[in-house]
Structure formats: structure tokens, C-alpha cells
Design brief:
Blueprint: H1 2-16, H2 21-84, H3 89-142, H4 145-150, H5 154-162, H6 172-199, H7 202-231, H8 238-287, H9 292-333, E1 356-363, E2 374-381, E3 386-391, H10 397-404, E4 412-417, E5 420-421, H11 427-432, E6 434-437, H12 448-453, H13 461-470, H14 474-479, H15 497-511, E7 515-519, H16 527-540, E8 545-549, H17 553-558, E9 561-566, E10 569-574, H18 576-580, H19 586-599, H20 605-616, H21 624-631, H22 643-646, H23 677-683, H24 688-702, H25 704-718, H26 723-775, H27 779-782, H28 789-807, H29 809-858, H30 861-867, H31 869-880, H32 882-887, H33 891-943, H34 949-972, H35 976-990, E11 1013-1021, E12 1029-1038, E13 1043-1047, H36 1054-1061, E14 1069-1074, E15 1077-1078, H37 1084-1089, E16 1091-1095, H38 1105-1110, H39 1119-1128, H40 1132-1136, H41 1155-1167, E17 1173-1177, H42 1185-1198, E18 1203-1207, H43 1211-1216, E19 1219-1224, E20 1227-1232, H44 1234-1238, H45 1244-1257
Parallel strand pairs: 3-8, 3-9, 6-7, 7-8, 13-18, 13-19, 16-17, 17-18
Antiparallel strand pairs: 1-2, 1-4, 4-5, 9-10, 11-12, 11-14, 14-15, 19-20
Helix pairs in contact: 1-13, 2-3, 2-6, 2-9, 3-9, 3-33, 5-31, 6-9, 7-8, 7-28, 8-9, 8-26, 13-15, 15-16, 19-45, 24-26, 24-29, 25-26, 25-29, 25-34, 26-28, 26-35, 28-29, 28-35, 29-33, 29-34, 31-33, 39-41, 41-42
Amino acid sequence: MAEESNINSNGEIHEGASSSNHQEQNGTSTIVVEEEKRGKSKEDEKNSTDIMLMVIGTIGAVGNGVSMPLMTILMGQMIDSFGKNQTDVHELVHVVSQVSLKYVYLALGSGVAAFLQVTCWMVTGERQAARIRGLYLKTLLRQDVAFFDTETSTGEVIARMSGDTVLIQDAMGEKLMATFLGGFTIAFIKGWLLTLVMISAIPLLVLSGATMSRLIAKMATVGQAAYSEAAAVVERTVGAIRTFIEISTIPGVREGIFAGFGIGMLMAVSFCSYGLAVWFGGKMVLEKGYTGGEVINVIIAVLTGSMSLGQASPSISAFATGRSAAYKMFETIDRKPKIDAYNTSGRTLDDIRGDIELRDVYFSYPARPDEQIFNGFSLSIPSGTVAALVGQSGSGKSTVISLIERFYDPLAGEVLIDGVNLKEFQLKWIREKIGLVSQEPVLFTSSIKDNISYGKDGATVEEIRSAAELANATKFIDKLPQGLDTMVGEHGTQLSGGQKQRIAIARAILKNPRILLLDEATSALDAESERIVQEALDRIMLNRTTVIVAHRLTTVRNADMIAVIHQGKIVEKGSHAELLEDPDGAYSQLVRLQEIRKESEHETYDNNKSEITGELSRPSSQRWSLKLSRSQGSSRGSSHRSFTLQLGLTTGLSVHDSAPDEPDDYPPAENAPEVPISRLASLNKPEIPVLAAGTVVASVNGAILPIYGVLISKAIKTFFEPPHELRKDSKFWALMFMTLGLATFVLYPIRTYLFSVAGSKLIQRIRSLCFEKVVNMEISWFDEPEHSSGAIGSRLSSDAATVRTLVGDQLATMVQNIATAIIAIVIAFIASWQLAFIILALVPLIGTSGIIQRRFMKGFSADAKKMYEEASQVANDAVGSIRTVASFCAEEKVMQLYRKKCEGPLKTGLRLGLISGVGFGISSLLLFSFYSISFYAGAQLVEGGHTTFSEVFRVFFALTMAAVGVSHSSTFTSDTTKAKAAAASVFSIIDRESKIDPSDESGTMLQDVKGEIELRHVSFKYPSRPDVQVFRDISLAIHSGQTVALVGESGSGKSTVIALLQRFYNPDSGSIKLDGTEIQQLQLKWLRQQMGLVSQEPVLFNDTIRANIAYGKEGEATEAEIIAASELANAHKFISSMQQGYDTAVGERGVQLSGGQKQRVAIARALVKNPKILLLDEATSALDAESERVVQAALDQAMVNRTTVVVAHRLSTIQNADLIAVVKNGVIAEKGRHEALMSIKDGVYASLVALHVSAKTA
């Protein structure tokens, strides 16, 4: 206790420090002003550095952009050097040497410019991104809790922060603009008339390019729409998915044709414009005295300028994306919250007593404004007393705590502390006086010491240790190898629930608050930990105002005042003893139920807790509907609403009505082995003729670029011929260019069409195989997060499509590239093998240059994400635990930690910018050096008589065009590793055998089904949670034609009985029999046809009412059967009154129908196959009173002469059942008729009914 007083004294000094309210506020504001001044000067310094970097970067970009147009001048000079000195080879070498030297100077200048552009822009980008990230997080932390409820999610925040925050604008725009202007300026200077003629072809180029982009985008959208239809696996039967898969291949083929036509058109227009330029250039040489070099200079300059426009579009779209991302972030940064964590204005008191009052409070959560939580709620808690709030889940207990913490403001009414409205206090000051311990403690990804120190700024190790001792945490902390320095893992995953809770309590103790809020603070602990932690809590509750939310009986019993809350109103209030005086009161019923629980067998709390949670977080029965749609056509299993929702109040103070959150991102698919290409090829076997034809066409296509290189060299030679030959040959080669253009226009679409057909058929086959496997998987497979409908949908759509690249697109590109390389090398070696060898040795330089530039243009977003992972984790923790951060006023602490984690990545980013700059500079230098060396070597060979001027250019253009073509086309090919991973992911599904397979035809089919059901000594755990025992030893006999109701607390295992009867799972031990035969020996499809399931939330398919009902009989129901089933389900009348009657489309998930109408269609679907057994899983609980009455009448009608199993229904249904079985702790605790069970004194069923009645009258 000495340590406790030490903490208290610290706390008192802290209190006393605010001896003068006025003084404190003045001091605070002075500090704030000084801080702001210091911050501003630092910001100005940073801004001026960044402005300087951007200016230098832009100058570099312009220099880099102009280097290509300048290169065209040198190319013109080089051509003239060769052409004009064909007779004087010594002069040729001399002139070529001079031009080659100019290439070297240009290489150096371009290298420096590229280095400045990339380094300056990447460094400033990194600096600015880091600053914006910090500012974004700081602003997020000041937002009120409502902002996180309604406007943003943790995932979204992290995506924005870890991505390229404001997609770094890398001055590509400036570079391309300089290239464009430079190219056209030089072209006009060198030959304005020829330039004008060439410009006339540009609109055609732009038009064909734009048309291609639009068509491809449109087809991609159509394809994606078809894929997403097909991918909605949970929504479709096998028949429907097959149809959708067939349809989805058509857009894939069309997309291929359009892409082929687009590329063909672009290349055809380019080649034709070359033809025009060669013919008109010849005229200019004859009539205007142009030289051959000037003509080629103009042609290449116009081409360079035009291409820069084409390259600009990705930069423009990236910039637009960056702007929209920035807009969203700055929108958040500029947002002023209603409850501002950084607001330093407001009252502070010299001392705080801790009187709490909620006066006539009206409140609804901002995320659910239509749902009124409090409607004139009032509660007064005097200073130093302990108040306990109990009541059903969702009644508003935790909302009281949120309002006291000022996470939200009431819509009307007041929340007062010491008679002062909470809104008048300085937010940070008042939150420092309140300590919060929640049911699920939130720990940050740091050490135990750091987590506890969140309770108090600058806490010493001694204070932290004494707080841990008070919370009974030192014993387990000392056992850990690193003690207080042990890392707790993400969300505290390295610690048990009890250990986490004790650290959270230590954190609250360290804060030494005047008001303590305990929101089910010991619910996660085992009996022993709970006892010790409860003692610690009792100790720290002394002389503090304490508000406890629905705790164990021990805590509630000791409270000065207990308030029972029901539907936002206080229905009973008083001490434990006072409330027990009314035996029929709501509180008495709760107490009685807890005492019954205590007496039951194996009753350690931890065990019970895990069982309760076990069913609550039951694998989502939405996944069951996938099976049902195939073999039985029924609807979705029940939602996890507590039984107590119908019975008024919660059946036990510690039963929670919320499933734990599922992780946001799913783990990757099983580590499947790599799929050999031969296996994919075998799936493409029927398309072998198509692939063979495609290969031939791709090979011919491969010849286009080398031939284009040859044509350019021929055109260059032509310009230096005598006039009569020039006139004749310029026309001939112009026609050759046009012929090449025409060939391209025809060949490209044929190539892409043939490979698209093969690729699309492969996708279709993979999707069909995959989907057939999916619908036949056992339900437990779907309980794994990586097999959720979303994950499977993505595998069916994107993974299957990615696989196609391995066989379709990649094969086409590979064949074409091989053909291009072989033909180019043959042409070069025929022309001049010596020069061919020299250039081939240098070609890798061009390749390296291209790779470096493309790598840069793609950006380093992946690296940025990786580097900022740790910093993002801090942000992730803070945003995901915003209530804890707000409660402990830990915003500044989070920011300090975030800045610290950003230091390393920022340095790495700056270093990366420098390296990229050097790489990019070298790549530019290599490119121009390549030209210099090639031409100089050519001149030497011409001088030695080994080759001619024409052959030099033939070798040069054939090989460089081939190199450019191969490097460019490889960028169109998807990442091979990605495709291989996708193939492994898809085949891991195809190769897996289902453990409970509905397509398995083996098994017995009984001749005449009576409907006798028996569960004998069944024990069961969900495969996804093997440590949670749902059934220990359950036995139950249900006779033919009987109606049996299963009741019990939420999570007791009622719906699990239905899942086992349908054989969604097999029991771990024991047996389930139908008419004396074990259900595992029966044919699964036949078994499910004997059962009709109606669930709380019916799943209807996006089809007509007729089709939805017919699904119940595998789509084979006659019109008469459909109408008969509808009449029996009370649905015929409303269906007939609709305009389209049975042909009315129900919309996605049945949205066009009301809840009651959907439920009746689901009942008709269950009845159309005339099942002998009817399973009703909370079938009317989600309906309003009128709909419930109609649906209940339909169910009563349907239950006649059928064996019916009803899960926890409204009282009316339970009362009329032939047998009621109460499921508790994995066994049947009580069974009998309503009257018999009511007569058992203090029985579980009797208590549930009494609770229901008291809640109704409240």
C-alpha cells in the first residue's frame, strides 16, 4: 500500500499544480504560442529547401527533355557526314569523329540533367510525403470518435499513409513537355515544310490511339462486370455460374481483337506517315536543296516530339490520381472536429470531487442516426460512490461511459461533472481525471513499460512497477525474459487476455484518476486472475467515483447503486439487497440465472466464456447458403443475435452479443507448390490448332521491326542518290513503308485474336473447375478467413485472369520477340558482320538504360510501403484504438513515436533518391554513348573497306529497332512470378478434395422417410476453433411429426444442432441418425433434399420469384408445385398482386421485397420439395409484428405432419412445441413441454421466461 500512496501523492501534487485556474490557462497559452513560433520557423526552413530542390529538379527535367531533340540534330549531322563523304573515307572518319564527340558531350550533359531531375524530385517528394503523413496522422488524432464511426476506417487511413502519400510528382510532365517543344522547334527550324506535311498525320495517330484506349477500357469494363457476376460465388448456383463463365469469355476475346486493331492501326498510321515523309523528303531534296541528314533529322524530331505526347498520358493520369488522393487527405487535414483533442481552451478546476450526472440526455450514434439509444435518460452518481450498470446487450450501458469520456456529445440534455457541463471543460484536462478500463484492452505495438507509461507523461520506472504491482501484473511480468521491456506484439497478441487486462488496469492506476470507468474490466480473466484483479480494482476504487458496466455478480453486489438499463431507460435502481426484494424484478431474474450457471458442472468461468464466445463468433452461416443453393436451395443460417433479444433482457451479465472482429486482410492462399506450365498447356489442348496458327502469325509479326530498320537505311541511302534515281526510289520506298503499315494492320489483330481465344478458353476452363470445387467444399473450409466469399471471388476473377498471361499473352510475346531477334541478327550479319558484333555487344546498354528508366517511371511505391511498415503500424494502432488514445490524451506520445519510426525510412528514401538519380543519369549517358561508339566504329569499318555507308545504317537500325521492340513489348507482359503465384493459388483449390462432398453420389437413399432424428452422445468443436468445445455430450431424440424447440443463451449451440443435422459439419464423436441410419452413411445430396431450412435472414438470388422458389427443387419445380408451395407459405397473394407476378425480379439479395415477403418466398422455396423435416432457425426474429404474424401463420401451416426443429423462437412458438430442449454448457440441461419446464423451481427455462415477461412489462 506504500506504493499506492506514493502514486496518490504524485497524483495530488499533479492536482495541486493547477492551484490557479487563470494562471494555468495563461501558462498553457504562452507555451502554445512559443511552440507555434518555433514550429513555423522550422516549417519555413523546410519549405525553402523543398522549393530549391523542385526548381533544380525542374531545370534538370527540362535539360533531360531537350536532350532527345538535340540528339536528332546530331543524327542528321551523322547521316550527312556519311552520305556526303562516301568517296573520301579519310574525311569521313574525321567528320564522324567530331560528331561522335558531340554525342559524348550530349551524353554527359543529359546524364547530369537526368541525375538532377530524379534526385531532386525524389528527395523533395520523400520529404514532403513524410511531412504530409505526419500532418495527416496528427490531424486524425485530433478528430472526434464520431469521425471514425462514420467517415473513415483504419484500413483506409493506412492505405493513404503507407501508399505514395501524395503520389510523388516526379517532373515527368516537365521533361516530356521539353521533349515535345524541343522536337517540334528543331523540326521547324530544319525543314518547316516537311514538318507541316508530317504534322498532318498526327491527328490520325492521336485519334487511333484514343479510340484504342477507349475501346480497350470499355471492353475491360464489360469483362470485369461479367467476371464480377461470375465471381459472386455465394449468389449463384452451378448452372448459373457456368452461364456467366461462358459469357465472361466473350469480352476477353473482343478485348484482344480491339487491342490488336488499336496497336495495328497506330503502327500502320506511323509507317504510312514515314512513307509520306520519305516521298515528300525526296521532293524537298530535289526542289528545296534539303540534305538527306536534314530530312531524317525532321522525321526523327517530329517522331520524338509526338511520342512524348503519348508518354505524357500516364504521367498526367498519375498526377491526377495524386491530386485526388491529396485532396482527400487535405480535406481531412482541414477538418475541424466538434470535439477537438488539441483545443486548449475551456475550464479547469482547482480540485475535482467526481459527482457525475446525466440530465435528460437524448442520444443516437452518428453512424446510426435513426437508432435512438437514449430518449430523455437521467442518472446521478454521487462523488466517491460505486455505480453499476446492468442490462441487455445494446441497452446503452457502454454508451453512458462514452458520454462521460466525452467521446460523443449528447444531441440534447447535459452530462455534468461537479455540476459543470462537460462541454465547458478543457478536454485534455478532464480526460486526465478519468481512467478507463475496457472489456477488450487495447495495447500498442511496443513494450509493456511503454504501454503502462501511456497512463502518465514522464512516469518513472518505480511508478510503473508499483502500478503493475497494484494490478497484480508484476508476477507474470518478472517471469518474462525481458521483463518490463517485453514487446506485447500487435494489439498485445503475445500476451493472454488476463495479462493484457492487468496491463490496461496498471495503465489506469498510473493515471490516478478521480473517476474510474470499468467496462466489463475482468470479463477476459480466468477465475483466479479475476479474484486477484478484482481485489486490485476494489483497492483503487476507494475514494473514487466508479462506474462499472454489467459485471460479475461479485462486483455488482458490492456497488452502492445498481441501475438496470433496458432500451435506453432505467427500469430499476437501488442496491443489490433492495433490488432482490422484488423476486419478479428484472435484476432478480438476472441474479437467479447467474446462480444457476454457477451450480452447473465444469463451471470455471473461462470455460463458459469460451463456449459462449464460441457460438457467438460462429462461422458465418452466410457461407452455408452456398451449399444450400446447390443441393437444397434454402436460405441463410441465423445471424448471431442473442436469444435474449427476443426474451427482453440478456440472460447473464457476462454474455456478450458481439462476435470478435475478423482481420481486415486475409492471409495468402495455402503455400501451394508451383504449377508446371505443361499442366496449364494441357488445359489448353483443345486450342492447339489456334495456338499453332497464332505462333505462325506472331513469327511473321516479329519481322516487322527489323524490316522497318532496313527500310529506314534504304531511305537514307536514297537521299544521297542522283536526282533521277532519287525521284524513282523515294516513291518505291514510300510505297514499301505503306505496305509494311498495311501488313501490320492486318497481322496484329489476327495475332491478338488467336491468343485471346486460347487464353479466354483457358480462363473459362480454370474458372469452371475452380467453381465446381468451391461449391462442393465442406462448410468448415469456408470458415477459414482466406476462403471467404470475397477471397474466393477474387481468385475466380483476378487470379484466373492472371494465369492466362502464362499461356496466352506471354507465349505470343515470346514467339514474336524470338522472331524479331533472329531476323534482325540475320539482316545485320548479312550486311556487316563486324559491325553487327560490335553493336550486339553494346545492345545490352540500351536494354539496361530502358530497364532503369522504366523502373523509375513505375515509381518506388512498393519500397515506400515496405519501408514505412513500422511507422504505419504506429498509425494503425493509434487509429484502431482511437478511444484509448483519446482517453489517455496520448496524441503527442503517438506522434513522437511515429516521428521516431519515420526517421530511418526517410533517410533510406533520400538515399534511394540519390541512387535512382545516379542510375537514371548513367542510363541517359549510356544511351548517347552507344550512338557515338556505333557510328565511330562504322566509320572505321567504312575506311577499312569492310562495309559501305548504307550497310552501316542497315545494321544500326535493324538491331536498335529490334532491341527497342523487344524491350518495349516485354513491358506489356504481366509479371511472371505474379502469374505463377496466381496459378498456384487457383490450383490449390482445384486439387483439394472436399471432406463432405455434395457431388459424391455414394451413400444410401431411404425408401420412405419418417423423420425420426436422434443425436446420441455428440461432442463437437468448430474446425476453425478447435480449442472451443461447443457440445460436450449432447443426446436428443426427436420423433416423427414432432415439433421440438431448442432454447438457451446466445452461444449455447442451438444453431449448431441444425448445422450438424444438415451435415455441414461432422461431429467429433457420437452419432446422428435419421430413421435409425447414421446420416454419414446416407447420400449427402439426398439427405439435404429431405430437409427444408428457413433462417432469420433469407438469402434470395438476383433472379425472379419463380426461379428463387424453384431453386428449392434444383430448378426443376413445375408451375403447379411453385404455386402450391407459395400458397402454403402465405406468399401467393402478395406475389399475384405484383405487376409481373412470379416473374418479378427480387433484386440483389432480394432488396426489392420487404423482410416479410422475402421470408415467405424463402419458406415457399423450402416447401417446394415437400421436405419431411423442417428446420426453422429464428425464422421470424428479424420481422416486425405484422410480418411476423403472417409468416408465423405460414410456418404453423407448414409444420403440420412434418418433423420440425425450431431454434429459440418467440414465446408463442416455444409454448406450442411438443418438446422444449434447453441447451446449456454443451449439454441438454432440461427438456419437456412448456408446462413441465415451468414447474421446475429455479429452472433455467423458467428463469428465461420470467426474464422475458419482466422485460416486456418494463
